[in-house]
Amino acid sequence: MNITFDMKKFIDNFENSCHKVQKKTFSKNEVITSYIEKRNQLCILISGNADLVRYDLNGNRTIVEHFSQYDAFGEVFYAVTTNNELLVEAREKCEVLFYIYDDIRNKCRSNCKFHQMLAEDLPELILSKVTDLNMRIELLTKRSIRDKLLGYFNLVSSRYLSKSFSLPFSLTDLADYLSVDRSAMMRELKLLKEDGFIDKTGNRITLLYK
Amino acid sequence: MNITFDMKKFIDNFENSCHKVQKKTFSKNEVITSYIEKRNQLCILISGNADLVRYDLNGNRTIVEHFSQYDAFGEVFYAVTTNNELLVEAREKCEVLFYIYDDIRNKCRSNCKFHQMLAEDLPELILSKVTDLNMRIELLTKRSIRDKLLGYFNLVSSRYLSKSFSLPFSLTDLADYLSVDRSAMMRELKLLKEDGFIDKTGNRITLLYK
DNA sequence: CTTTTTCTGTTGCAAAAGCAACAAATTATT
DNA sequence: AATAATTTGTTGCTTTTGCAACAGAAAAAG
């Protein structure tokens, strides 16, 4: 995520700040939080990476969002209307800060410097979430697996400023992220290679066009 | 959109407030704004309804978002990475307020009451956008046209608190909103009727399950 | 270092979705 | 009120995607 204020510096100064903020560590595959209850939680990932995953009634798994350092997540962002399970799962060892959203908006405001600063930059924080989600929607509205793949590769490519990059997750996960069948996606990857659009070795992709 | 503060009252008191805010009226099919240039615009729809529409290179049209009274939109919410055209088009006569986002965050803050109030409620405003987009993503990640239709109908149904409702747009537009082929969607609607899931007369839908 | 588990790559077949085209119905326009 | 434009409903055919199943590769666990 693209945050305009200096999250690192901000987080570094956290320790001797507000006692209401909890910092927890999770190991691989642990569930960081679930979006079932209404806790109005806002979480920030300090290290590691994690996925927001939905399991639907047909047994499909969807990676709704992928989080890396300094990304924000939590129920504040999600009006849980669905009866599907929504979990944030650690992909590797993760450190996470837990806030209560109401504390950022109200209570702590006047007395706690930490929450006050966070409140100050809250619009930017949430706004970067919005732009992220809009990019995700643009991907998902592409009509074919091919266009979804190319769209995704373009995003990653421009993020790393390089035509060549490693995918941030496994191909199995990529299929769940693009919301398509894995084997169909593998087939399309092969075709993209054959048609000279990309090169692919393991999960390293090189774009050959433009 | 679900805003927690009283947008109506807020808008009503606008007239004798800040001269930087522009109010414009658009007639049906007019382009309210385009997301090509970087103007950092934030718009609020006071009346009417409009769509954020994307036209891609394959000639597909996608309704990215649908806006009705008091919904917010504009480039602030969208990091335009794509080379596709992104337009907000009026579906009927629309009144729209135009803000510059920076004015809300910085300049006007101390002296203009209107911007000050808006800044105050900005996190809530943006947050409701986030939850909207998340619902949209949930729809788009459904694997079949049937599930997309049912998911969408559930949303509308719970919004109107009724199993029976009129669709807020035409079936042609619904297909563009769900990002599927229109004729395939029509076929699926027929099947949903035949299978006893829904009843349908024109664009009035009645849910027959649960 | 060996075993177990997960991930990758592939395929044949079935199902779903897209495309194209058209007539009928509805809605706008003059 | 007549004409034009758009939307709805339908269908045959084609293409794409999904499903199931499996073998080999790679990664994780013991």
Structural commentary:
2 copies of one chain form a homodimer. Chain A has 210 residues and is an alpha+beta fold. Helices cover 36% and strands 26% of the residues of chain A. The first copy, chain A, is built from 7 helices and 11 strands. In chain A, the strands form 3 sheets. A 4-stranded antiparallel sheet of chain A has the order 1-8-3-6. In chain A, a hairpin with a 5-residue loop joins strand 4 and strand 5. The longest helix of chain A is centred in the middle third of the chain and has 19 residues.
The whole-number mean of residue pLDDT values of chain A reads 87
Tally of helical segments of chain A: 7
Oligomer: homodimer
Q: Class of the largest domain in chain A in CATH? A: Mainly Beta
**CATH architecture level-2 label of the largest domain in chain A:** Sandwich
CATH topology of the largest domain in chain A: Jelly Rolls
Query: Beta-strand percentage of chain A?
Result: 25-35%
Q: Runs of chain A with pLDDT <50, length 5+?
A: none
- Write down the Rg of chain A: 19 Å
Number of strands of chain A: 11
Task: Give the topology string of chain A: H per helix, E per strand.
Answer: HEEEEEEEEHHHHEHHEE
Please tell me the total number of domains of chain A: 2
Secondary structure category of chain A: alpha+beta
Largest interface: A-B, 37 and 36 residues
Strand order of the largest sheet of chain A: 1-8-3-6
Helical fraction of chain A equals 25-40%
The 3D shape of chain A can be described as globular
In CATH terms, the superfamily of the largest domain in chain A is Jelly Rolls
End-to-end C-alpha gap of chain A: 26 Å
Biggest beta-sheet profile of chain A: 4 strands, antiparallel
